[in-house]
Every structure is written in C-alpha cells, then in structure tokens.
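Example 3.2
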Amino acid sequence: MMRLQDPLPLASEALHRHGDASAAGVSVDSFSIRTRLARIMEGGDFPALSRQVIDTISTIDDDVASLQRLANVVLREYGLTLSVVRTANSVHYRRGGRPTESATHAMMMLGARVVRQLAGSMMLFEHFQRRSPELKELMILSLLTANHARATALQLGHDDPEAAHLSGMFRNLGEVLVACYFHDDYQRIRSLVQDDGRSEASALRMVLGFAYTDFGVEVANQWGLPDTIAQGIRATAHTSPSLLASVTAFSHELTSTLYQTDSNSSVGPALDAMLDAHRPKIRLTREQVGRIASDALKETREVLLGTDSEQSVLHLRELNAAARRAFGASLTLADDGDAPTMLAEPDVTVRARLRNELDDAVDPASGATIGTVLLQAMEVIMRGGPFDRVVTCFMTGDRMQLVARTGLGTDIDALLSRFSFPVSARGGPVVALTQQRQSVYLPTDRTMHTMEQRWATEQGVSQFGVFPLIVLGKVIGCMYCDRLGSGPAPDRATVRFTKSIADLVVDAIARRRS
C-alpha cells in the first residue's frame, strides 16, 4: 500500500509497472489521475476541504437556518466577509441608497446561491494561499482570473457574474493541487519547461501522465460541483460549450498573458494575439479589457491587503506594473499602499454603522423577520467585540427550559446541540444570570464565583457574558457570548455596546408583538 510520504514514479514508469491496467481497458491517464487523487485523499486537510466545498456549494436554500450556517462560513474569513459586503454594494446588486456594512444583511440582499458561489471561491483561496510562497503566487493568479471573469461577465451583460467568479477561481485547480501535494513533481515540470525548453504539455505527459485540466476536472466531479465548473476548466478560445465557459477561458488566458509573459516587450503583442483568438466569442475592445484588468486588480487588492499587507503591497506593485506595461500609464489603478478601511477591526466607526443598519432592521416596516434581525444582531456583537461565539436563547413555551435557538462562531453546531438548561437551581450560571435580569460579562463586570468558574472550565471558555431579553416585563431568553482563548476581556464600553444590541433585539420583538 502506498503511503503519503512515498515518492510517486514518473508516468512512464507507472505505465511499465501497471501494463495490465491498459489490458483491462484503463488508460494510463485514468490510472495516474486516480493514483494521485487517492494519494492526497490519505491526508487530513484535503478531505476536510472537500467536505467544506461540497457542503457550501451544494445546498442553495434561502431559509434563515441555511443563511445562519453560511454566515458562519462567511464571518470566519476576512476576505470572504469583505467579498460578500463589496458584492452587495456593487452596482449590479445594490438596490437602496445606503451602502451596507453588515455581512449578514448583505447575504440577505444577495441570496444564498450567490453567497455560496462567493464562499466556494474564497474558501479555495484561503485554504491554499497560506501554504507556501509558491502556492500564494498561484492563488493570487487564480483570484485574478476569478475577478477577470466576474468583470468580463458584467461587461458582457451576463446575468450571473458570481458564477463566472466561481468558475474562474476553480479554472487552475489541477495545477494548484499538483503544486501543493506533489511539490517535487511540480518542480520537475517547471524545470523541464524553463531549463530544457519542453512544452508544458510534453512535461506534464512525462511527469504526470495527464494535463492539469484533467486533474482539475476529476476533482471537480468528485466534489459534485456544477457542470459549468468542469466546462470552464476544459474550455479554450476555440472549444467552449457556453458563454460562461468562454468567459472562464478568456479570463484565464488574460491572467497568463498579463502576469506570466516572460518578456516585457512581448506583452503587448501577446495580448493582441490573445484578444484576436477569443474575439469570435468574447467581443471586447482593448479599452474594455483594460477596464476589466483594472477592476480585477482593485478587487484583488482589497482581499490581499486584508491578509499580510507588507508582502501583499509588493505583490500589488508588481501586478500594477505588469498591467501598465500592457495597457499603458492611462490604466486606472488604486493606490497599492493604502489598506482598505471597510471592515477594519476593532473600529468604533464600524460599530456605529453596523448598529445603525440593525436599527433600520428593527423597524417592522423594513420587512425583516425576527430571524433575520437575530442573525444580523449576532454578527454585530461578534464583530463589535472580541467574541468567539454568540448565541440567542429562548425560554420554552412552558418556561421549564432555556434553549439555544441560533448562533454564530467557532464550533457553533456542537455548542447549540448541548446548550439547553433547566430553569431551576440546576440550570447553571446562564439561567441564574438571565433570571437576575441584569446584563453581565465575566470577568469585565466582576470576578467569577466558584460555580461560574467551574461551569466555564467545563465549557472550555475563559470568559462569558449573559444579556437577558426582557419583553414587556417578561424574561423570554438571553443573548450569550464568550471567548475560548486566553485573550483579554472586553472593556466596559464594549460590554455596553453588546447590551445595546440585545436591547435592539428586545425592541424588534416587542414592536412585532404589538
């Protein structure tokens, strides 16, 4: 049995060792692909990524429960939070006069399908870009292709630009997987191309026995991704079954031409040749393509400056310089040295804007249900304070149990499954503090009592707060938040802010009951 650390043979050696595979009707390509896929499935991180991608993209319900699960995915990564908010504020999606800063509000505006497409794209980026400088470079190129695809779809009037973004992000999946899990083979392929002058197709046949696109399609099919993803991976300027596939192929080649052409003097002619090749299906002028490149760089900049700004500023300067070589100094680019301000944390101004958005949702005239108000309120609390989890609990109809109904944060599903307490002396500190009708965060407001400290240790939390929900004089539940690590407790201003959000939830419930 082959182990993860064992070296894989060259494709030519695999053919010699498994000649009986051909006799059985299995091509060396299929055998090599299946061998490689089985190899990476032995690790822990790739199966975990597989489950996340499948779960995120496959379900498209627009109900509150589905959006709550999606919100946990979105709020976990800065880049994805930013992407969702920015997309909702774009001309294509924005419906009102005031921009949104709340990710959950943005999700309501976009709908589950669009958010899942964004999440699938950014999940892939975040998973691989931290692995190594080499993989970061590949993922930046994938992100550029995704942003080229979205901008191209918008330029062409396509009705689903986020589907184009998703397809663009997955276009180079095969190469990313080889670079990540078969680093020595990837270096051998690059050496054959750069040092020996072989074509990439020839080097891939020799080392892997299949093309990057074959591997990408196999994994996309294994994950059960939409057929449009596989079509986009295989599409070329001359073979594409749909406009979306043509957009993906065009965007991939635009990225390669602008940012992977070796000679500065050849970028312009290479760009013209690429545009001519795609013109039968992608009818865009050079000026329009320049705007696409500019928009894609701005989108990419926002994500990169939210990761590791010093290294990212260098990346952005190189990308800006490459784009200017192709389109000239007139190309409009954002300043690559300024970090984005939207969603910066902690930020009192952001807190105020998020609270104002929630205040609008509290009004029944907004059309927001209690479920959407709760989801938005929990996001405001998480982003407004240094909390790992936020849970909304309600009394049961017979008032015998205090039960968690919804929540956001780390391992929230496991927490919700056990967050049910009897309304009695055995109910523990969450029930006791709720019945006292006074908001409290421990240890900001006071030191924990022995019973509270024991409960916190059992729950694996270092600090926690309980904010009772009292509607028309009656305790109906509470909002609970905590931290898992050993970080400092929030200051009193943050605790007061959190209480004010719980008060808005109370107001929303009371106004709808009346």
